[in-house]
Amino acid sequence: MTPALKESRCRSCQAVCYWVKTIKGAAMLVDVVQKVGQLTFTIGADGIARRSPPGEPGHESHFVGCPQRDQWRKDRKPKAKPS
């Protein structure tokens, strides 16, 4: 049984979404509507988002389709290699 997911809204585009936790404990905003895609997530009974099996429907990260996603993107600087 999947836990009840609380609806939220994207602060940029106001789309209805869900906040979920990843296996590493990070918060992730996902779209409410499920679809079949290359990288979708199934929410387990423990409330953790895991990758959906290929060809199975799941929730896509809202970051993929949000029209204002670039304003939330963090600069990813390469890590310095140890000397």
Describe the structure.
By secondary structure, the chain is mostly beta strands. The protein has one domain. It is 5% helix and 36% strand. The protein contains one helix and six strands; from the N terminus they run E-E-E-E-E-E-H. It has one helix spanning 62-65, and strands at residues 7-9, 16-22, 27-35, 41-43, 48-51, 58-61. Strands 1, 2, 3, 4, 5 and 6 form a six-stranded mixed β-sheet that branches. It is globular and about 50 Å long.
Average pLDDT, rounded to a whole number, is 83
Q: How many domains in all?
A: 1
Beta-strand portion reads: 35-45%
Model regions low in confidence, pLDDT < 50 over at least 5 residues: none
Number of strands: 6
Distance between the termini: 50 Å
User: Structural class of the secondary elements?
Assistant: mainly beta
User: What string, H for helix and E for strand, traces the elements in order?
Assistant: EEEEEEH
Sheet having the most strands: 6 strands, mixed
> Rg, please?
15 Å
Label the overall shape: globular
Oligomer designation: single chain
Helicity, as a percent range: under 10%
Count up the helices.
1
Give a nutshell description of this structure.
This protein is mainly beta and 83 residues long. The chain has one helix spanning 62-65, and strands at residues 7-9, 16-22, 27-35, 41-43, 48-51, 58-61.
Topology:
Blueprint lengths: L6 E3 L6 E7 L4 E9 L5 E3 L4 E4 L6 E4 H4 L18
Parallel strand pairs: 2-5
Antiparallel strand pairs: 1-2, 2-3, 3-6, 4-5
Features:
6 strands; mainly beta; 83 residues; globular
